[in-house]
């Protein structure tokens, strides 16, 4: 994503494959492509196929027809889940000899289009340094400054998702504080559940029972929260016992490398035996919940105190 603007100035490619977990970056990339090709008359020259309207033959036909009143047309495939084998062949054949005035853009959140050779755009979560630049620049437009620790807190609260940070920046832009501090972030920014689970795990690793309970009190007492905690400690356990690299573990556990990096940080605060016992306890509680032997809310508090004293 960082180099896309420069790449577009140099050359307009026949197709762009966008993959990653930060949804807003997909739209940002598309807008950059539209601007680069100077797209005109979008009603005629911007064709969208989603999972409901997808038709392989119609996609190829749209790619092969010329634009109307514009130098380029854009055909967008938006997160198609089921990609027929016959369409894969047709698409590969088309891309061997594409129409120069057509730009095919593929939103591929589910990684279904790895079979094609295309210009790739990463929509993975941005690193801290890139997000800090965006945050500082956005706040400066509204006459505000942000302290470094507050900026880092905002990034972590949103788990490095640009899409979430953008929403929270609107709150910070409209607040009365000229200087954004950690106190401002605490009072205005909604923490992503994933980050709250990270905070909860950190509190448990430090045996800070008061903070752990306070965090749990703020969370929904539902199966989603339990699943996040279960998956989080499962990740910590595998990170602790495995000699695999971050990339290998991310593929094995079907998570992003960012999650593995965070897990390594937390896993250091537990012994391997502790993580094994916690993982077994979580599996037992999962069994009790599914068999109606334990209510979700009771199970969550049972786990917190069980982990604190394991």
Topology of this protein?
Layout: H1 4-10, E1 15-19, H2 23-37, H3 42-45, E2 46-49, H4 56-64, E3 73-78, H5 85-96, E4 102-107, E5 119-122, H6 128-141, E6 145-146, H7 148-157, H8 162-174, E7 179-180, H9 182-188, H10 193-205, H11 209-218, H12 223-241, H13 246-253, H14 257-267, H15 272-290, H16 296-308
Parallel strand pairs: 1-4, 1-5, 2-3, 3-4, 6-7
Q: Compute the CA-based radius of gyration.
A: 23 Å
In DSSP terms (H or I, runs of 4 or more residues), the helix count works out at: 16
N→C terminal distance: 44 Å
Q: Which residues form runs of ≥5 with pLDDT under 50?
A: none
Helix-residue proportion: 55-70%
Largest sheet: 5 strands, parallel
Enumerate the strands of the largest sheet in spatial order, edge to edge or round the barrel. 2-3-4-1-5
Whole-number mean pLDDT: 89
The total beta strand count reads 7
Overall geometric form: globular
Strand content: 5-15%
| Class from secondary-structure proportions | alpha/beta
The sequence of SSEs as H and E is HEHHEHEHEEHEHHEHHHHHHHH
How would you concisely characterize the structure shown here?
With 310 residues, this protein is of the alpha/beta class. 59% of the residues lie in helices and 9% in strands. A five-stranded parallel sheet has the order 2-3-4-1-5, sandwiched between helices.
Tell me what you see in this structure:
By secondary structure, the chain is α/β, with parallel strands linked by helices. Helix content is 59%, strand content 9%. It has 16 helices and 7 strands. It has helices at 4-10, 23-37, 42-45, 56-64, 85-96, 128-141, 148-157, 162-174, 182-188, 193-205, 209-218, 223-241, 246-253, 257-267, 272-290, 296-308; strands at residues 15-19, 46-49, 73-78, 102-107, 119-122, 145-146, 179-180. The strands form 2 sheets. It has a 5-stranded parallel beta sheet with strand order 2-3-4-1-5, sandwiched between helices. β3 (73-78), α5 (85-96) and β4 (102-107) form a beta-alpha-beta unit. α10 packs antiparallel against α11 and α11 runs antiparallel to α16 (296-308). The protein is globular. The two termini are 44 Å apart. The mean pLDDT is 89.
